[in-house]
Amino acid sequence: MASSTQGKVQVGEQAPDFTLPTQDGRTVSLKDYLGQKAVVLYFYPKDNTPGCTAEACAFRDSYEVFKQAGAEVLGVSSDSVDAHQKFATKYRLPFILLSDKDGAVRKLYGAVSAFGLLPGRITYVIDKEGIVRHVFSSQLAAEKHIDEALITLNAAK
Prior knowledge:
- The chain has 5 helices and 7 strands, in the order E-E-E-H-H-E-H-E-H-E-E-H.
- It is of the alpha/beta class.
- It has one domain: 3-Layer(aba) Sandwich (Glutaredoxin).
- The N terminus is likely disordered.
């Protein structure tokens, strides 16, 4: 069974709303940002794994650039709120991590793995109106997600 690397949600479509718990126990919805900020929504396989740690730290290191571009970064995996809290603290992550325990939001976006084993590593750039402007999927080039998102945000200015 083949799966699309682009997922279900495509460029030009309205990004589906969702509500998930953050690493500090609050809840966040995509609609909280509509009309205010662009959102870089990135799905990743698992906290504290080499590729995911590299990706999270790259987002951390560029976080001020994302803020200057008018965007918020939201990381999503099926790890627990507690695991996210430990991961965010350990690596001093300034952005929000969301716990998608049952994978419902991942399924909603179609952020499935190209390999069928690990959850997919897919980044969606969503503008202030909630329209998906870019989708980037690469399981292995974790840090390229940051470059792709910034290129899209800067092109939109």
